[in-house]
Every structure is written in C-alpha cells, then in structure tokens.
Design brief:
By secondary structure, this protein is of the alpha+beta class. Helix content is 32%, strand content 22%.
C-alpha cells in the first residue's frame, strides 16, 4: 500500500501593515541596542549622532546657513527629528519588502546599519571602534525583522487555521509589544548607564572652585548698559548665550581626567596639562564679545561675557613658540575638541598682545557644558570658527599650507577677523509705535578695534548720531540709543557703525560665506495715526 505524499504547506505573505509595523519595531530594537554599545566607544558613535553629524558635514553651506537662519539654535533638534523620520521611513520600507522577500528586507535593515558604520568612521576623531554601534544595531534590526515577519506570516486557508508558520492578530500584537518592551528596557538601561557616566562629569563641574583671577577685569563701566526696555543686556546671561556648533551630542567631559596637549612645529617644550595644573597658573579675567561667522546682518549670534582663563600667549611662549614675524615656523594653531572638531587660528593673532584665553569660567561660574566645559579657547577679534574651540583637548602648531581645519575644508576663509556690525533691537520689525518720541536702540561691535560712533537714519535720509553706552574696552560690543520723533506712516530705520580706526561699516549686502556678512541692518515700522 502506497502512503500518501505529504504536500508542503504553502504560506500566505503577512499583511502589509504587519510588515510595516515589524520594520518599525526592528529599527527601534536596533537603535536601542546601539545605545549601550556606543557607551563602550563614545556618544558621538551612536547611529543617530553619527548619521546626523555626517549630514552636517555633507550639507551644502547654503543649506546650512538656511537652517541656522530658519531654526536658530533649534537646528540640531530639527536635524535629529529629520534623521529619525528618514530612518523610520526606511524601516517601514524594509518591513514591506520583507513581507514577500524576508531576506531582502533583512538585508536592507542590515545595510542601513552598515551605512551608519561607514558614516561614523568618517566623523572627526573617529577610530575603527566607532563602527561598532551601528553594526550591532543593524544586525539586531535584521534579526528582529526576520523574527517578526516570520511570525506574521499566515498559513494558506487549506492548511488549516492552526497550521504552523504564523500567529493570529493577537499573538502578533503580543510579540510586537514584547519585542518593543525588551528593546526599550535595553535602551533605557543604556541611557541610565550614560547618565551615570555623565554624572561623573557633572560632579566634577559641581565641585570645581575657580581660583580668583590674578588679573581681574575692572568693573563694567557705569553707563555701559543703557537699560533700554527690550534691548540686549550688556552682559549676556549664560543661558541666553548663543550656541552654534556641529555637536548633536554635547560632550560632557570629566574635569578630573581632562588633559591638554601642546605640541607641533616650533614647540621646543611640549606640554601636557591637567585641569588642576592649568588652574594653578595665573588667571586673567576679560570681557569679550563672541560672534559667529554664520550671523546674518542683524542676526542674534553674538554674545558678551566675562571670561576667566589662562593666557594662551603665555602658555605658547612657555612651550617655546614664536610668531611667524619673529621667525617661528608655524603660522597656524590647530585646536582640537574631544569630539574631533578642528579650528585653526593664526599664531600671529594669538601672540600679538590681545587677551587670547584658555577660558575656564564664564560670567562668574565654570563653563557650562554647552559652552565648552572644562576648557575652551576665546580669542577677541576673530570669528568663532577660527578661534573659539570648545571642549578643548589638543593644541598643535602647524601651517595653513599644511593643514585645513574643519570649516576651511567647507569653503570658509582661513582667516576671519570680525567685521564691523550694528543691530537694531528696538523697535522690533513690524512694530506699531504711537507718533511722537520713540527710542531706537541696539548694539554694535568691532572686536579688537572698538566702536567709535553709531548712526541712524530714517527712510534713507541723513545719518543722525546716536548716543553710545560707555566703552568696556575694545573687545566688547557697545550699546547705543537714538530718540526719534516719529510721524505717522510706514518708515524704514537703518543703522551703521564706525570702528575705532575710523572705518565705516560697509553698506553692500553680502552673505556670511566665506568670511562674514556685510550690509546695514534695517527695520520697518508702522507708526499709527494719532
């Protein structure tokens, strides 16, 4: 008697919605696993940070400028949300592909992890280990996708509802919830471990007592702050100070383990310093206004603070460094942050007598983490991208011919002294003041040259001299105000400044790229009828 031949069970593909959900959960699982793995390497190696950083590196400058002007300091949050949205879309696509071709869908999920690894390896300061979080996340995402799609597949009707190879809707839902919950536990565990690691940095900052300055800054002159309602204060509170950088993850450096290395061409005595050794040196206090080169005409990316730090010039001279004008072989000082960012500063500028600092304090407290704790550079008179390296860990002497720093490789100028700028803070654009006396006020800056005069005009008429606040040296901005007898109608207010050398602020409009914006800030107001 011949036995009946067993017919292989045919399986019907999972419903598309199950595939899409499987893809999303698989991506979530991969990211959650990558989180603790990144703790073994560095936070910047986490997939979202690595991909986001790569996007920043490869985005055309014009698009970057648009993002900064459109989103301000929220640009990083917008970028992160954008990366997450793209990853979610790809994950859903991988899930839909896996419905009919499971291996192809899993391969796509794994390939995304591989792409993240390649991008992580291309980030500043990366090592081979930076690929590990993305590779681990991609592998987990691929495995979870195969598991969920396999469970979501339903047997064909003739095989019977109880046939092997799939689960019902409730069973699939329970499996998805269990996978998501387990992934969340892994991810939250990674977050807690990361928070525990950050707690060491937080504690090191909390217990840091800054020594008093050997060279204190004089009190801010009476009258420097004109105290016009709505105008920018003379000293910018730390919480309001602008932040423009490429760090999607703010480095949290433990002050106890931080080290600074000084080396390179023309360094006769290389140095390696701990924070305690740096703080044992004489500290200088100085009021300095910082400005970002991305700042458009009238833009917000300028701030004034009282900085405390060690003289950078003294440190370099101790290492044997000479400026090019005195025969030194190096004309560029390359500062490197803990996340690999590089910023190149002219050696001549650092050693020409200006108050170039390795800053440890800002407005009477240790540097905030977002502004470079434990040590950053501050060099008055230069835009931040060529002078203000945060989270500093390395200073290397070289030449501009031999090395292009991060922003120079992206079409920005090698050298960038701050341009003379002025801004109207009040009235705001679109304001509708009453006829009669109206206070027009704002700030003007030309760091390391100072501001000698500010002028205002209405509707293209003659320039009128504004009243200046008291000067706090040549390295800070100056407030100004002008009393306008406003008549009804629409009016355009413009402002311009004259620096300490007598040079008038250029009126021609130019974008920030490659070395700072030029042009006059204008505000349009509508004065109401009586």
């Amino acid at each position: 008697m011949t036995g009946a031949r067993k017919v292989p069970e045919r399986r019907r593909p999972a419903a598309p919605w199950r595939g899409a959900l499987a893809g999303a959960v698989a991506a979530f699982a991969g990211l959650c696993v990558a989180e603790p793995v990144a703790l073994l390497v560095r936070p910047e190696a986490a997939p979202i940070a690595a991909v986001g950083g790569a996007v920043v590196d490869r985005t055309p400058t014009a698009v970057k400028e648009w993002a900064v002007s459109s989103f301000g300091t929220a640009d990083k949050a917008v970028l992160t949300l954008g990366v997450v949205a793209v990853l979610a879309a790809v994950a859903v696509g991988a899930g839909l592909l896996a419905v009919r071709r499971p291996r192809a869908g899993a391969a796509l999920a794994g390939a995304v992890g591989g792409l993240g690894a390649l991008l992580a390896l291309d980030r500043p300061g990366a090592t081979g280990w930076d690929a590990l979080p993305s590779l681990a996340g991609g592998a987990v995402a691929a495995a979870v996708l195969l598991l969920l799609v396999g469970a979501a597949g339903r047997p064909a009707p003739e095989a019977g509802a109880g046939g092997a190879g799939g689960v019902d809707r409730r069973g699939f839902g329970r499996l998805v919830l269990a996978t998501a919950a387990a992934s969340a536990v892994v991810g939250l565990t990674g977050r807690r471990l990361g928070a525990r690691r950050s707690a060491g940095a937080d504690a090191s900052r909390a217990r840091l007592a800054l020594p008093p300055p050997a060279v204190p800054a004089p009190p801010v002159p009476a009258g420097a702050d004109l105290k016009v309602p709505g105008a920018t204060p003379f000293l910018t509170p730390n919480g309001d100070f602008y932040r423009v950088d490429t760090a999607l993850v703010v480095p949290r450096v433990d002050a106890d383990t931080w080290r600074l290395r000084v080396h390179g061409e023309g360094v006769d005595r290389p140095l390696t310093l701990s924070l305690a050794q740096l703080l044992a040196r004489p500290l200088t206090e100085h009021d300095i206004t910082l400005t970002c080169v991305s700042n458009p005409v009238g833009g917000p990316y300028a701030g004034n603070a009282r900085w405390l730090g060690v003289s950078l010039a003294d440190l370099l001279r101790e290492a044997g460094v000479r400026p090019p004008s005195r025969g030194g072989p190096a004309d560029q000082l390359v500062a490197r942050s803990v996340d690999g960012m590089t910023i190149g500063t002219p050696v001549e500028s650092v050693l020409d007598g200006r108050a170039a600092l390795l800053a440890v304090g800002m407005n009477g407290e240790p540097l905030p983490f977002a502004h470079g704790f434990p040590v950053r550079m501050v060099v008055p008179g230069l835009y931040g991208y060529v002078s203000a390296c945060k989270w500093l860990t390395d200073l290397r002497l070289t030449t501009f011919a031999a090395y292009d720093a991060y922003w120079v490789r992206r079409a920005w100028a090698e050298r960038a002294p701050v341009r003379t700028q002025s801004r109207i803070d009040v009235p705001r654009p679109g304001a509708r003041p009453r006829p009669g006396p109206v206070t027009v006020a704002g700030v003007a800056w030309a760091q390391h040259r100072g501001i000698a005069r500010v002028e205002v005009r209405v509707d293209g008429g003659p320039w009128q001299r504004a009243r200046l606040g008291a000067a706090d040296g040549v390295d800070t901005w100056r407030q100004w105000r002008w009393e306008w007898e406003a008549g009804p109608g629409r009016h355009v207010l413009e402002v311009r400044a004259v620096d300490g050398r007598g040079e008038v602020q250029p009126a021609r409009r130019r974008p920030p790229l490659p070395d700072g914006a030029t042009g006059l800030h204008a505000v349009t107001v509508l004065v109401r009828s009586p």
